[in-house]
Amino acid sequence: MAVTATASSMSTAPCELSLELRPSARFDIVDLRRQSGWLNGLAEFPYALFWSFHTTAGFLEQRRALHLDTRRGGVRPYIRAFQTVFPQEAGYRHDELHLRDDLSNEQRQVEPRNGDAHLTFIASGLRTCVRYRNRPSEPVYFVDLDGVADDRHRRRQARVIGFHHEQVVARDQVLVPMSSRALDSVSLKNPDLGLYERLQALIDQHGVTTGRVRLALGAADAGTALTINEYETLLMRHDLASVLHDPFRFMAEKGRHMIADPWAIPAKAVDYAKYDVIRSFNQVCERLRIPDSRAERLITLLLGRQAHRFLRLQRSVNLLVSDADSPGRGRLVEGVYQCPILLQWMKTPGNLRTVGISLTRFE
After folding, report:
1. DSSP code per residue over 109-151
2. Is the pLDDT reported for residue 48 higher than 90?
3. Smallest Cα–Cα separation from 45: which of 210, 203, 158?
4. Which residues, including other chains, have CB under 8 Å from residue 17's CB and lie 6 or more apart?
5. Which of 320, 330, 340, 318 is nearest to 202 (CA)?
6. How many Cα neighbours within 13 Å face the side chain of 78?
7. 261: Cβ–Cβ under 8 A, 6 or more apart, which residues?
8. 13: which residues sit within 8 A by CB, 6+ positions away?
9. Which of 39, 113, 255, 327 is the most exposed place for a label (fewest CB within 10 A)?
10. Which of left, alpha, beta for 126 (phi over 0: left; psi -120 to 50: alpha)?
11. How far apart, in Å, are the Cα atoms of 335 and each of 112, 129, 228, 229?
12. Binning pLDDT at 50, 70 and 90, where does residue 187 land?
């Protein structure tokens, strides 16, 4: 993956860099610290915030990335395990482009079928915005799950901000109405919720030009999670709901296709195809360190009763605040399709969830 960087306000703190990345494969991982040494220009800052413009390419939390590097064989096999669970062309409703009301006829001709990439991003705990301690000896991995579509290398954008201190300047909370269904997902960008207006008002009130907004669930709030991704109806209401109910559904769907038509996969004999799904299940459990991967445990997982333990879902998300595009006035910076999303797989009393808000300033 090739990386180019453009700096803004290099002479003042905090320092913001804009990155353009060109992936070399559909699934690509790059250590940003090893690219042309540009990150060395931020060595004076003890902290850095990394942000991705996309919903199928982003970062792991620093602790998880380091843990995978030192104890689990690296980031690549970790992500591969989730890609095994969400294989390409496994019957995702998101990929049935003729059903997508959000697309024009022209867009349907070029839109990538990437339901697997979206679900892998959400389930593996990838993030669009992460805060790192700036340690030159530790890698910073940019993980791209959909970098090449129909032989076209996609143009990826990211930003990094180096800063010395982070100060919390405001706290708030928002009540989010949920449906009476146990499985539900809600866009926190919904205008009826009024969250974005409140966030911008807080940013203006406290004069924050560079910082972040952290949205977080309470410790006692069970059966729920937060993510940032594309809030597309078929992806959220069908594909993701299916995963919350049965995290191995699409893996099994792909396996059923293999067994029904084993010669669709070169060099696979019928007997091999029959056992390939079971072998893959065991590999996934081994990679993710799921204890007791015997048949009884797998059956329980397949029934979806432990979905929240298998999926690396998040309790908080970050939104970037920057004035790089509006000098002197901080604004929320988001990719075109990025949306904070509240998920639940258990009903909540009164059908209301509370999301905490904290606004910080970088100095």
Report:
1. HH----HHHHHHHHHTT-BSEEEEE--TTS--EEEESS-EETT
2. yes
3. 210
4. 5, 6, 7, 8, 38, 41, 42, 159, 160, 161
5. 330
6. 25
7. none
8. 45, 162, 163, 164, 363
9. 327
10. beta
11. 17, 11, 10, 10
12. very high
**Residues β-bridged to residue 174:** 355
Please tell me the number of Cα atoms within 13 Å of 335 on its side-chain side: 24
Q: Edge-to-edge, what's the strand order for the sheet holding 339-344?
A: 184-187, 339-344, 224-229
Alpha carbon distance 23, 355 (integer Å): 35
8 A C-beta contact, residue 3 and residue 32: yes
| Contact by Cβ (8 Å): 59, 130 | yes
Neighbours of 237 (CB within 10 A): 15
Please give the Cα distance from 250 to 118 (Å, whole number).
13
Q: Which two tokens stand for residue 101?
A: 């009301």
Do the Cβ atoms of 64 and 140 come closer than 8 Å?
Answer: no
Q: Are 78 and 68 in contact (CB under 8 A)?
A: yes
3-class SS at 245?
Answer: helix
Report which DSSP code applies to 180.
Answer: S
Residue 303 is which amino acid? Answer: L
Question: Residue ranges of the alpha helices (H) in the chain?
Answer: 62-71, 75-85, 105-110, 115-123, 195-205, 233-234, 241-245, 249-260, 270-287, 295-302, 307-310
Percentage of the chain modeled with pLDDT above 70: 80
Structure tokens at 88: 């390409």
Q: 3-class DSSP state for residue 28?
A: strand
How many angstroms separate the CA atoms of 287 and 298, rounded? 14
CB 339 within 8 A of CB 145: no
Cα 79-82-86 angle, rounded to 5 deg:
130
Number of residues that make up the chain: 363
CA pair distance 277, 320, nearest whole angstrom: 41
What are the pLDDT digits (tens) for 320-346?
A: 999 999 999 999 999 999 999 999 988
